Description:
Blueprint: E1 2-7, H1 8-13, H2 33-46, H3 54-58, E2 64-66, E3 72-74, H4 84-88, H5 110-115, H6 122-126, E4 132-136, E5 145-148, E6 152-155, H7 159-162
Parallel strand pairs: 1-6
Antiparallel strand pairs: 1-4, 2-3, 5-6
Amino acid sequence: MKRLYIDIPMLMNSNVNAEDIHCEYMFHQKNHGAFSLLEVAEFSAYCRQCKEAFCIDACPKEALEHQENRMIKRYNMRCVGCKSCVLACPFGTIFPEVINYVTSKCDYCLNQLEQNPDYEPACVQTAPANSFVMKEVVEDHKQNIFYVGNHLAVRTPSWLNKEGKL
C-alpha cells in the first residue's frame, strides 16, 4: 500500500519554506495543508507515548485519547483550550496548536488515489524533490522511518533511537 512519505531532514536541508508546499484539501484554510502534515509528523516523533498519559487524565473534557498506535489525538469540539494537558505532560512535548485536530486531518488524497493509483498530490508536486513522496514504505526504526496512522510514513530523528529504546 502506498503511503505519503515525508522526509523531514531532507525538507529542512532544502531551505524551502513549508508555505511554498501546496495542498488541494479544501478544508485547509489558506492552503496550509502541508503544515498540518508536518505538525502531525513532528508530534509523532516528540510525543513520548506514555502508557499512563497524564495529559489524557488531566483533560476535563475527555478531548484527548490514545489511538491504537499510542499516539494522542485531540478532538476539536471537546477541547476548551484550558491547557491542562500542556501542564500535565512531564516531557513538555504538548503544544496545543500541534496536536492533530480530527476536523483538519489531511485526507492524503485517498479519493484521487483510488481513481488513479499513480496520482501525485499537490504537496508531492510542490515540495522539494523526494521530501514528499507517494510510495510503498517499510517501517524501519533504525532508519528513523515511522508509520503515523495508516497512510503516512515519516523519516525523522526520534527520541526512541536517541535513548536507545528501539
